[in-house]
Amino acid sequence: MGDTARSKLQHVELQKNRTEIITSLNTKIYGITTHSNNILVKTKGETKLKLINAMTGEITDSINDINPLKPISIYVTSDHRVFIGAWSGGKAFPASGRRVVVVMDQEGKQLQEYENNKHNKRLFTYPRCISVTSNGNICVVDHLDIDHRGRVTVLSPGGDILGIYIGHPDVNTEKKPFKPVGIRTTPSDNIVVTDVDNHLLHILSDQGQVITYYNLHESEVLNNTFQSGNVNFK
Q: Carries keyword Repeat (predicted)?
């Protein structure tokens, strides 16, 4: 678990009636996922991702370096491909410079970049979170402004736009805009998006079409963010 406010990263195990801390590190992280039984993290100002040994806490440089770009978000697939949302730095908004999703293999070799559509228009403003379906669709939470208004862009493996989701008209209004902060894909290839300010979970198809939404405030489930890649859905 990562706590950016307290600059702390902890590896914990949930016991029957308590939480056991396995490792605790004083380090500020801005993105986290698991990779080959280790923890892959993004730290501030680095172009290279860091690798943390889950048992010893040792921090080393990973082989995933996207210099001169800077990482924003990370996601690792079951076949060990590493997806990195990245930018060229500067001011986050309005968008300038490069905003891209980079794909690497487990050896750190770059496989592909997703940056512009077929009309050479920018695909992303600030690719905040990434997940990938089992059939290879790339699902990106894209923040559009400093207030975290956003959208979900779903791409095919070839880079075609399959869908763009900007929130549900029944619940997302000008006064309650869609502010996605987390995204995960399920084994059945649905897409689950957290809309924290509105206490909502949005459930989408693998092409970004809305299926339904859940109001977690009414269900007394609050603070619904995804902090790591180890979230299981049926």
A: yes
